[in-house]
Amino acid sequence: MEDNRVNNLPDVVQTVIIDAPIGKVWDKVSTSEGIAQWFMPNDFQPELGHEFHLQSPFGPTPCKVTELDPPNSLTFTWDTEGWTVSFLLKELDEKTEFTLVHGGWKQPDELIGKANEKSSVIHGRMSGGWVSIVQERLKKAAEV
What we know:
Belongs to the AHA1 family. With 144 residues, this protein is α+β, with helices and mostly antiparallel strands.
């Protein structure tokens, strides 16, 4: 039996160096208030198994915390398409290396339900969106 995941789109990965200590960056990526400042309104709680919603342009998006290792990493499922989003933090003296990994992509021609567009189109759009969200919005929110 062939493994179709081989043909799936690659993870979207964005890394930025933030001029702030890891604890401050962790607060921006692991609290409802912090996430709302740079990403989307939400009812997030930093608890393993917590189900929450991101208020996306398509309406409330269901999510669930699947991994939590303060202040180093946080992973949650995003929407019903099989996506996962991970926040990975690494202490660099008084700075923090932050990496976002958006995984769980399907094959390029598969449709994404809510958007009713091909996975490849959404992947391209989100790849570009994550650049400004991580490189600009998160960095600015954490460095204030």
